[in-house]
Specification:
The chain is α/β, with parallel strands linked by helices. It has two domains: about 180 residues, Glycogen Phosphorylase B (Rossmann fold), CATH 3.40.50; about 190 residues, Glycogen Phosphorylase B (Rossmann fold, 3-Layer(aba) Sandwich), CATH 3.40.50. About 50% of the residues lie in helices and about 15% in strands. Strands 3-2-1-4-5-6-7 form a seven-stranded parallel sheet, with helices on both faces. A six-stranded parallel sheet has the order 10-9-8-11-12-13, with helices on both faces. Strand 1, helix 1 and strand 2 form a beta-alpha-beta unit. The longest helix has 22 residues.
Length: about 400
């Protein structure tokens, strides 16, 4: 009998991670002759991997209190439709991927109205990093029969809170197996071997166009003054950002181009990345490209987080979070100025600093575990659904 798996995630990074899991689920199901159907909240990548979308969530994500207000009603609308579908068509398994508050809402709904449906969390919210809302941590544990953790410290944190947490490794390690190399990417993009190329990654959310792109592009402008022959590459995370990015390139008079297709081509071709914090930082690290990371929220959101919520975080980017150790420079809020980004970038272009960064990446990669994270999770999910899967311990 066909088993139905519901996967809930959001934003560009969640769609990527979800697509990798969907591919693994269908691949392993085919190998053992299991019939499954994946329904999802996600985006184009998950749909291309074989999921049937109940709602599209890649374009309604945000970070922060004020920033989230424009997306509140679209998110609630998608949630209502998904919950109604779940109530009327109970799945055999619910899988949540990141997407903190919306997925906690989904999980609590399933626990209340579909208490016999098993639930798992893959890539749990980073409460283990910020840990300012113990209630949220309790909810995550409450709604998860299993938590598949992508960082060792994440697994340790949730275990300490009573969760059945298992470290499975990071799915991006597998994604990098098919990533292009530097020479291939440079040839594809028409970049000579000795030309300095810098990839700019300012936004995967609408708010980041406002708060981060001007800072990153101004820093690029300052670098261009120092290195006149530099070439900037700007991957397009979502089509709706194209006109804003093109206008900014023109406004700052950058020797830059928007790169179509996979951002991995632009990243692999680069000598350096100037980027907002997020999942992409790990992709950059796994491609051994030095990077300067920044993040900005609205002044009001940052003030609330700092003065009311008393938010204190040691690091914000995945490369530094893996071992809670500085590998790449991070600049947050008022420290994220064009001058600080430009200066740090110029330092990282020096060969000795590049070598130091790559050595740090290697240590980080060893901690992330080997390949096959999504395969391990897929096999475990299929086993929990009652299928016989060849044993490969998590």
């Amino acid at each position: 009998m066909k088993k139905r798996i519901f996967i809930s995630t959001g934003e560009v990074s969640g769609d990527l991670q979800g697509a990798l899991l969907v591919k693994s689920l269908y691949s392993h199901a085919e190998k053992i002759g299991a019939e499954i159907e994946v329904l999802a909240l996600g985006g184009d990548r998950m749909e291309a991997a074989g999921a049937r979308l109940l709602g599209k969530t890649t374009e309604i994500g945000s970070m922060g209190i004020v920033e989230g207000l424009p997306y509140l009603f679209p998110t609630l609308s998608v949630q209502r439709r998904a919950k109604r579908h779940l109530r009327e068509n109970p799945p055999n398994m619910v899988v949540m991927i990141d997407y903190s508050d919306p997925n906690i809402s989904i999980g609590l709904y399933v626990r209340k109205h579909l208490p016999t449906v098993p639930t798992v969390y893959f890539i749990a919210p980073q409460e283990w990093v910020v840990a300012i809302n113990q209630k949220k941590t309790q909810w995550i544990v409450q709604i998860s029969d299993y938590i598949y953790s992508i960082f060792p410290l994440e697994a340790e944190y949730y275990k300490s809170k009573g969760a059945n947490a298992i470290f499975v490794g990071h799915p991006l390690v597998d994604r990098m197996k098919s990533a292009p190399d530097r020479s291939t990417s440079r040839a594809k993009l028409g970049i000579s071997p000795d030309q300095t190329a810098i990839v700019l990654l300012p936004a995967s959310r609408q708010q980041e166009i406002k708060y981060m792109m001007p800072v990153i592009f101004k820093a690029a402008q300052q670098i261009q003054e120092k290195i006149p022959e530099v070439r900037f590459l700007v991957p397009l995370s979502l089509e709706k950002y194209r006109s804003d990015i093109a206008q900014a390139i023109d406004d700052y008079q950058l020797q830059a181009e928007i790169v179509e297709g996979s951002p991995l081509d632009a990243i692999a071709a680069a000598d350096l990345a100037i980027t907002k914090s997020g999942t992409v930082n790990l992709e950059i690290a796994l491609l051994n490209v030095p990077q300067v990371i920044m993040y900005r929220l609205s002044p009001l959101t940052f003030w609330i987080a700092k003065n009311i919520l008393k938010l204190k975080v040691q690091f914000v980017s995945p490369p530094n979070l893996v071992n809670m150790k500085v590998i790449v420079p991070e600049f947050i809020q008022d420290d994220a100025t064009p001058e600080s980004l430009a200066l740090s970038s110029l330092e990282l272009l020096k060969p000795e600093n590049r070598e130091k960064t790559i050595a740090g990446y290697q240590e980080m990669r060893e901690t992330l575990g080997g390949e096959g994270a999504c395969d391990r999770v897929a096999r475990s999910i299929l086993e929990h659904l009652g299928f016989e899967v060849s044993r490969s311990r998590l």
